[in-house]
Design a protein that fits this description.
The structure holds 3 protein chains of 3 kinds. By secondary structure, chain A is α+β, with helices and mostly antiparallel strands. Chain A has 2 domains: 37 residues; 133 residues, Rieske [2Fe-2S] iron-sulphur domain (Rieske Iron-sulfur Protein, 3-layer Sandwich), CATH 2.102.10. Chain A is 29% helix and 25% strand. Chain A contains 4 helices and 9 strands, in the order ααβββααββββββ. In chain A, the strands form 3 sheets. A 3-stranded antiparallel sheet of chain A has the order 1-9-8, with no helix packed on it. A 3-stranded antiparallel sheet of chain A has the order 2-3-4, with no helix packed on it. A 3-stranded antiparallel sheet of chain A has the order 5-6-7, with no helix packed on it. In chain A, a hairpin with a 2-residue loop joins β8 and β9. The N and C termini of chain A lie far apart (67 Å). Chain B is mainly α. Chain B folds into 2 domains: 34 residues, no CATH class; 402 residues, Cytochrome Bc1 Complex, Chain C (Up-down Bundle). Helix content of chain B is 63%, strand content 3%. In chain B, α3 packs antiparallel against α9 and α11 packs across α15. Chain C is mainly alpha-helical. Chain C has 15 helices and 4 strands. In chain C, a hairpin with a 7-residue loop joins β3 and β4. Chain C starts with a helix and ends with a helix. The chains are: A alpha+beta, B mainly alpha, C mainly alpha. Chains B and C meet through α4, α5, α10, β3 and β4 of B and α1, α2, α3, α4 and α5 of C.
Chain lengths: 175, 442, 393
């Protein structure tokens, strides 16, 4: 009787020791793993704020956000109309314009072609804007429309819309 | 090594499949579970495994730091500050690494002095000891190059002073120094190669650790009595006896380690290393990290030329003399197994050796103190360097005079116990008697 | 001492040959040390070679110096005795007897500690420890006593030892001291104001970003507004030019000078150091900084102050190029705190202490958890180990 009690107590102590050591090792591992996550200085650059007041209708600007180009276009009423009236059946990656631009006047896109990562043309005056009056990727000839949707060429998807929000009527925060 | 070891218990299942093809599991079992250790090992024998764990801690934190560090003279200091301020837990990882170096050395020093006291270097463990000394040398090189990487003032000037030691080599000295620098002063190429080697050397140490343990497991551990294992009764298996004991040692070690990492992370460092390296301004006095201080003191203790007395013939000038002394202090450890001629291993049964040993230990600590003080420091009205020279003389005399010549002639060893198990049983009985007496008293 | 250059020059071919011979001989000696003859040879070599140093010692009139040092050894004893008789004179006795007095204090302290420790060991032994454990404890105590005595007796006051002439700064009680120390945020906020309005004219703070000051208790809007008050040099723009824009929280504090040379040129050749790590980069840390900022005074008559320098007893050379930076009411605190020199110094040191170690509070808090856990783990493992070993006879 006393021997088995002894045995239990011993097992308990030994198991507690091993368990605590393992838990300790596990907790100690976290800081080591976490050090590979984005650091404070990287996170500080994770959002980009942009003043829209200087962008006239029909103009576009490119800003850098998380190391990538972001296209911001102030669309004209005609362009908005054109984007809204597109037939869904014509689209390889169907998406309505309303889904892509919360405020139809402003279109915000990640300026990276979804085919192989080139930067499409169409931001500057005189750039080729492709067959659909939006953007044109010169690498392999992908044509995007005025909503950033893929219309023709090898790219599989529409240009991505980054996470952004309006902090006032004329300012947006991307990210 | 030996033929595949297949015991019934691990012959089945996935482990059995693996083990019959690559006997790693048997190897682990043999060396970490069933390996017989003398049952009278004291807590002084925990420091070997602690050193191994310290090495692992250093390698893990080191790799993570390397992932964030930039080895370029223009960015090194700033990248370390980025680690301290912006990288998640970067401050923790860096403080573990910088204090870890100190604690690694502390553990290794205790391990070495233990080996010295109990004669663990003697036949048949000469190779175990020599591999250990080799690791110590590699550690010193690694630690030195690592200290250069933050590119602070002490990094830069420490590197300048230490690399300049090689200029003491006759004729080719300056060529060697240029080769080490990759230029005409410590600069970007130096920083880059130190980074590359600082990353490489720990893995070389790991390889030597494997050999060290392999060699140890061929001959078995020494023990506080220093007598050979005579029967299985003298031994206990590694697990659970030493697994638990080593875990306890680790927990206590980490406790003290944490005190430094969390509450005094810069206590062992030098404030000057938070000033970016400036090749045009030398700090008032350049001090190496504490673990190099005894050797640094020996370097500085030699302030005289060595030649034929009463002539102007100089064989070794003071600078080379200092370098040789410092180098010799480590290299002499390689031949220690042949310098100590007493057949008795443990200092417990060598009354005179014991005295010499403690004086030796005090000398080493004192040399550390001398190394920390400025070169023109004064102790009791006399130049501190003189005391340093005296301690250096004893350091070498201990190895080349006392151990081989004096002690074997004058020392009368105490009679050795018959066997480990007998002595151990005596100890247990005494302890019980003591307890009984105390209870009776109460 | 022999001129180093002279000794290097004397390293001609014959000397080199001799050096090689000696090293060869010693290598052979070590290799064959087991035989008696060579061992004797080695001993002879070891004994003879240092004779050379004795000779140079005798020749180069060191004996004269030795005589002087012997005298010096006696004199502190005399002076200290004298100071015991007349305390007033002790003050004037100067630094010479300082060493002896410090030694006396330390010896007394060590003796007291040793007695306490030995008593404790003795008590513990009769109380509950086994004899083996007592022996171990006694040994540990003995070793640590030796190490401690050697260490304490000989320890210089770190960094204020001879050679670094600065006066020892008095200890202050900072809120961030100790294991539970935290930053005094309102002091640090005021310190930020002092930095911005006073120090920043010359000193950079380049490792600190605007976003970091959120840790001092500012909300995101305040941080943004604070950053926007600075103009940051950015670029190149599409035309390839640099341009200035308002600061963002992600920017670091801009430096007052475009580069170190410009900073030197504007400050009479002295480079105003970056302040981000100042508290960690000076022995004495915050105490030193506070002492330095408040320590400017007129130089004593016998002290000659260099051209364009200012006397400050706490600085390593007692004179520095930085003019006294703080004067009464130099800044106007928003919270109405009177801006005395003492107050501004206290505040800016608080701010710089945070700037140097922004992780300090997290570090200490994490440390407490780690220690509690490791303490508990040690106890459990001690019990477990004892259990395991209890069955070994």
């Amino acid at each position: 009787m006393s021997e088995s009690k002894e045995q239990t107590r011993r097992d308990f102590l030994l198991l507690t020791g091993v368990a605590m050591t393992s838990v300790g090792a596990g907790i100690a591992a976290w800081p080591l793993i976490d050090s590979f996550n984005p650091s404070a200085d990287v996170l500080a650059l994770a959002t980009t704020e942009l003043d829209l007041s200087a962008i006239e209708p029909g103009q576009a600007v490119t800003v850098i956000w998380r190391g990538k180009p972001v296209f911001v276009r102030h669309r004209t009423p005609a362009e908005i109309q054109e984007a809204a009236n597109t037939e869904m059946n014509d689209l390889p990656d169907p998406q309505s314009d309303a889904e892509r631009a919360a405020n139809p006047e402003w279109l915000v896109l990640v300026g990276i072609c979804t085919h192989l990562g080139c930067i499409p043309l169409g931001q500057k005056d005189g750039d080729s804007r492709g067959d659909f009056n939006g953007w044109f990727c010169p690498c392999h000839g992908s044509h995007y429309d005025i909503s950033g949707r893929i219309r023709k060429g090898p790219a599989p998807n529409n240009l991505a819309v980054p996470e952004y929000r309006f902090v006032s009527d004329t300012r947006i925060v991307i990210g | 090594m030996s033929a595949p070891h297949t015991s019934p218990e691990n012959a089945k299942g996935v482990t059995g499949w693996l083990d019959s093809r690559l006997p790693v599991i048997s190897l682990m079992n043999r060396s970490l579970r069933d390996f017989p250790e003398p049952k009278n090992l004291s807590y002084m024998w925990t420091f070997g495994s602690l050193a191994g764990i310290a090495l692992v801690i250093m390698i893990v934190t080191g790799i993570l730091l390397a992932a964030q560090y930039t080895p370029h003279v223009d960015h090194a200091f700033d990248s370390v500050e980025r680690i301290m301020r912006d990288v998640n837990y970067g401050w923790l990882i860096r403080y573990i690494h910088s204090n870890g170096a100190s604690f690694f050395f502390l553990v290794v020093y205790i391990h070495m002095f233990r080996g010295l006291y109990y004669g663990s270097y003697k036949k048949p463990r000469e190779l175990v000891w020599m591999l250990g000394v080799l690791m110590f040398l590699l550690m010193m090189a690694t630690a030195f190059m690592g200290y250069v990487l933050p590119w602070g003032q002490m990094s830069f000037w420490g590197a300048t002073v230490i690399t300049n030691l090689f200029s003491a080599v006759p004729i080719v000295g300056d060529t060697i120094v240029q080769w080490l620098w990759g230029g005409f002063s410590i600069d970007n190429p130096t920083l880059n190669r130190f980074f590359a080697l600082h990353y490489l050397f720990p893995f070389v140490i790991v390889a030597v650790v494997v050999l060290h343990i392999w060699a140890l497991h061929v001959v078995g551990s020494n023990n506080p009595l220093g007598i050979d294992v005579k029967s299985a009764r003298d031994q206990v298996p590694f697990h659970p006896y030493f697994t638990y004991r080593d875990m306890l040692g680790l927990a206590v070690f980490l406790f003290f380690f944490s005190l430094f990492v969390f509450y005094a992370p810069n206590y062992l460092g030098h404030p000057d290393n938070y000033i970016p390296a400036d090749p045009l301004v030398t700090p008032p006095h350049i001090v190496p990290e504490w673990y190099f201080l005894p050797f640094y003191a020996m370097l500085r203790a030699i302030t005289f030329d060595i030649g034929i007395p009463f002539t102007s013939v100089v064989f070794i000038d003071a600078k080379l003399g200092g370098v040789l002394t410092m180098l010799g202090a480590v290299l002499i450890l390689f031949v220690l197994p042949w310098l100590d001629r007493s057949p008795v291993r443990s200092g417990r049964f060598r009354p005179l050796f014991r005295v010499c040993f403690w004086v030796f230990l005090v000398c080493c600590v004192f040399l550390g103190y001398v190394g920390a003080r400025p070169a023109d420091a004064v102790l009791l009205g006399l130049p501190l360097q003189w005391f340093g020279l005296l301690a250096t003389a004893y350091y070498f005399a201990f190895f080349v005079v006392l151990l081989p010549f004096v002690l074997p002639r004058v020392e009368k060893e105490v009679e050795l116990p018959a066997s480990i198990s007998e002595a151990f049983a005596d100890g247990v009985a005494k302890k019980k008697r003591g307890k009984g007496a105390e209870e009776a008293k109460a | 001492m022999r001129n180093r250059f002279a000794s290097r020059a004397s390293l001609t071919a014959p000397t080199f040959a001799a050096t090689v011979m000696v090293s060869l001989t010693s290598t052979v000696t070590v290799l064959t040390l087991m035989t008696k003859k060579t061992a004797t040879m080695a001993t002879v070599l070891i004994v003879v070679l240092p004779l050379r140093s004795l000779q140079s010692f005798l020749i180069q009139q060191r004996a004269v110096n030795a005589g002087r040092t012997a005298l010096l050894m006696v004199s502190p004893t005399l002076r200290s005795f004298q100071s015991f008789l007349s305390p007033q004179r002790a003050v004037n006795a100067g630094q010479a007897n300082c060493l002896f007095q410090r030694l006396t204090v330390k010896v007394t302290a060590m003796a007291a500690v040793s007695m306490v420790v030995l008593r404790a060991v003795n008590a513990a032994r009769t109380a509950f420890l086994s004899r083996k454990l007592t022996a171990t404890a006694a040994k540990i105590a003995a070793v640590s006593m030796v190490v401690l005595t050697v260490g304490v007796l000989l320890s210089p006051d770190k960094a204020y030892a001879a050679g670094e002439g600065g006066k020892k700064p008095p200890r202050q009680s900072w809120s961030f001291n100790g294991p539970f120390g935290v930053f005094d945020k309102s002091a640090a906020q005021r310190g930020l104001q002092v930095y911005r309005e006073v120090c920043a004219a010359c000193h950079s703070l380049k490792h600190v970003a605007f976003r970091n000051i959120a840790a001092l208790g500012y909300n995101p809007d305040q941080v943004k507004a604070f950053a926007a008050e600075y103009q940051i040099l950015d670029g190149p723009n599409d035309e390839g030019d640099s341009f200035e824009r308002p600061g963002l929280p992600s920017d670091k504090f801009p430096s007052p000078f475009p580069n170190d040379n410009a900073a030197r040129a504007a400050n009479g050749g002295a480079l105003p150091p970056d302040l981000s790590l100042m508290i960690k980069a000076r022995a004495g840390g915050a105490d030193y900084m506070h002492a330095l900022l408040t320590g400017y005074r007129d130089a004593p008559a016998e002290h000659e102050v260099g051209e364009g320098l200012y006397y400050n007893p706490y600085y390593s050379t007692q004179q520095l190029a930085m003019a006294p930076p703080l004067t009464l009411d130099l800044v106007e605190y928003a919270d109405g705190t009177p801006a005395t020199v003492e107050q501004m110094s206290h505040d800016v040191v608080n701010f710089l202490a945070w700037a140097a170690e922004p992780e300090m509070e997290t570090r200490k808090a994490t440390g407490l958890k780690a220690l509690l856990f490791l303490g508990a783990l040690s106890v459990v493992l001690l019990l477990a180990t004892r259990r395991v070993w209890s069955r070994v006879e």
